[in-house]
Design a protein that fits this description.
Layout (H helix, E strand, L loop, with lengths): L16 H12 L1 H4 L4 E5 L5 E6 L14 H8 L2 H10 L3 E12 L7 E6 L2 H14 L1 E11 L5 E13 H13 L1
Amino acid sequence: MIGKPSFLNFAAMAESWESRKMRWMFKLFPVYVGTGANITYIAGDYKELHVRIPLSWRTRNYVGTIYGGSMYAAIDPMYMLMLMRILGKDFVVWDKAANIKFKKPGTDTLYANFVITEDDLTGIKNRVANEGEVNYTFNLDIVDKNGIVHASVEKLIYVATKEFYKEKLKKRQTT
């Protein structure tokens, strides 16, 4: 099979010059290159991102399937980076925790399609406005070309206003 499977071909919007540049920067960033994966699409508004994880010499483990570490490393920073771009410089965004459940060995190319919806953004912004910070959970499946789930990932992302975060750090230093 060449390219992305049909269920991942949907793209809500075209890439912008900035999102295309970010995608190309990942092709040059040694840590991400080491995962063996590649980012195939980033929406111009950063609300959608596609990752492809091929079974290759870089990703293959001892038993000939995609190494779980490659799967996780390929998807690890994406929600954090997407939210940083979407929310802008007035917010602090951190990866806080993750849980990955391997369901089936990866014996062929795998795909992950990240989407941050308007409902996600509204929920994050409302809670941050009311509480100053939020821990928000995203769920993602890593699938093959037939849509069969090989791993399910839960990412916990911390978001706060910069002002709230600075005050929190000051309090932490005084105690």
